[in-house]
Design goal:
Radius of gyration: 18 Å
Strand content: 25-35%
Number of helices: 6
CATH superfamily: q2cbj1_9rhob like domain
Helix content: 10-25%
Number of domains: 1
Shape: globular
Low-confidence stretches: none
CATH architecture: Sandwich
CATH class: Mainly Beta
Length: 286
């Protein structure tokens, strides 16, 4: 199936990648697995056509809710035992976490405010999460036209590395400005949801920009354990949740999600990165 998807993506890429969301579509994770890994007639071309038209797919129940709730607890405990730090993606980079406040967030390719923990395959998997995540990531890599295990044995010297990011957006200030993700090595963004609006936080959250240049919030459709995928070039961001609440960097409240990305490393020529999209959207900034 990997070669089928690779050929389909090459055919589709003769036209520009989408920059705006067309529709939100949903599918149970198990059905998605069957479509990607088995010969379900018409599934592969329909999926690629849909994604290249700007659709975002919400894959229901990809992770058990218990896994995501446990990941949040384990991440908080792990971060509390370590100082906030920063490390480039070079050979031997450790796992680390960084508290990125409003000032620090302006130094990134696109601005944001969050507390992130970063994990690499070559370290000792302190939260014991890589096997569960890899099993799901492999399915989506195939859907992106890649070998199922692409980049798994890469280290920074090879130019591209898989990286897990567990992210907390604190109340009032946590956000990501409108942006397009890098797509050279990973055609699709891949977001895994660890909390739910109306239960863990109120308002804000993930949005994509539509053809009318308005934010379309997807949070009301998202449940803990779902994964969303869409072309990396579709402009999206995260608006602050729980506006008016105090910002408490030592708490575990706010919005949480799990990002899986194959990033260009800091070794070699200029990195291929995402870029901010300057657009006036109501209510998306702190």
């Amino acid at each position: 199936m990997g070669m089928i998807f690779a050929d389909l993506w090459k055919q589709a890429e003769v036209r520009p990648y989408p920059t705006r969301i067309r529709a939100l579509r949903t599918m149970p994770w198990e059905e998605f697995i069957q479509g990607v890994t088995m010969t379900v007639p018409g599934f592969a071309p329909a999926l690629v056509t849909s994604l290249m038209s700007g659709d975002i797919w919400l894959l229901r129940g990809a992770f058990p809710e218990t896994f995501m709730r446990s990941l949040k607890v384990k991440t908080v405990e792990w971060m509390r035992g370590r100082e906030s730090s920063f490390h480039q993606m070079i050979e031997g980079s450790p796992d680390f976490h960084r508290l990125i406040d409003l000032d620090a967030g302006r130094q990134y390719a696109f601005a944001g405010c969050k507390h992130s923990a970063y994990f690499y395959r070559w370290n000792d998997d302190p939260l014991h999460i890589w096997p569960s995540i890899t099993a799901r990531w492999r399915v989506i890599k195939v859907a992106m036209g890649l070998p199922y295990n692409q980049y798994e044995n890469f280290t920074p010297k090879d130019g591209v590395v898989d990286r897990i990011q567990v992210v907390r957006y604190p109340p009032s200030q946590g956000y990501l400005e409108p942006h397009a993700d890098p797509h050279l090595h990973q055609r699709l963004f891949l977001s895994c949801y660890m909390s739910r609006r109306g239960v863990d936080y109120q308002g804000g959250g993930f949005y994509a920009v539509d053809e009318d240049n308005q934010p379309r919030y997807l949070e009301d459709d998202i449940r803990v354990g779902d994964i969303s995928i869409g072309c990396a070039t579709v402009v999206h961001g995260v608006a602050p949740c729980d506006r008016g609440k105090p910002v408490d960097w030592d708490s575990d409240n706010g919005r949480w999600f799990l990002s899986l990305y194959s990033n260009a490393s800091d070794v070699g020529p200029k990195r291929h990165t995402g870029k901010p999209v300057k657009i006036n959207l109501p209510g998306v900034l702190p």
